[in-house]
Design goal:
3 strands, 50s Ribosomal Protein L17, Chain: A
C-alpha cells in the first residue's frame, strides 16, 4: 500500500527529481511562449510545484504597510527554493580590479519574472495558474506527451481572439 506517499518518483532519485522539477519550473516561467512540452507524469508533478511559487509571488503583490518590503524579501527567498540558485560557482578571473558580472542563470531570471510580471498577472486569481493539455503519444518511445501552460498568457489571448473572429 502507498499510504502517505503522495508524489510520483519519475524513475529518479530524490535529488535528481527535485532538480528536474526546478529546471522544468524555470523553463515554464522563463518561456516567452508561456508553455513547455513534456510528458504527462512530469507535467502533473510540475503543476503544484509551479503553482506554489506563483502563489508566493501573488501574495507579495498584495502586501502593504511598514513591513511590506521585509515580507517581500522573505517571500522571494521562499520562492527561490523552487529554482536553482545561480552564479555561486561562476567566478570570473580576468586579473582586473573590476570584473564583469557573470550572466544570470535561469533560476534567478525566473524569480525576477515571477515577482515582476506574473505576480501582477495573477493578482486577482485564487489558483489554477496552469493548464495541462494532452497531445498524444511520442513516436520514439510511445510516451504520453502534454503541454503545460500558464493560464491567461498573452499568447492564449491572441489565439482566443483569432478563433473568435473566424
Amino acid at each position: 500500500m502507498r499510504h502517505l506517499k503522495a508524489h510520483r518518483k519519475l524513475g529518479r532519485t530524490t535529488e535528481h527529481r527535485v532538480s528536474l522539477l526546478r529546471n522544468l519550473a524555470a523553463s515554464l516561467i522563463n518561456s516567452e511562449k508561456g508553455y513547455i512540452v513534456t510528458t504527462v507524469p512530469k507535467a502533473k508533478e510540475l503543476r503544484p510545484f509551479v503553482e506554489k511559487a506563483i502563489s508566493l509571488a501573488r501574495r507579495a503583490k498584495g502586501l502593504s504597510g511598514d513591513t511590506a518590503k521585509i515580507q517581500e524579501v522573505h517571500l522571494r527567498r521562499q520562492a527561490a527554493r523552487f529554482f536553482h540558485a545561480g552564479n555561486r560557482q561562476q567566478k570570473l578571473s580576468t586579473g582586473k580590479f573590476s570584473q564583469p558580472r557573470a550572466a544570470r542563470t535561469a533560476g534567478v531570471l525566473a524569480v525576477q519574472r515571477l515577482f515582476g510580471e506574473l505576480g501582477d498577472r495573477y493578482r486577482d486569481r485564487n489558483g489554477g495558474y496552469t493548464r495541462i493539455i494532452k497531445l498524444g503519444r511520442r513516436v520514439g518511445d510511445n510516451a504520453e506527451m502534454a503541454v503545460i501552460e500558464l493560464v491567461d498568457s498573452p499568447r492564449a489571448a491572441v489565439v482566443a481572439a483569432e478563433s473568435a473572429t473566424k
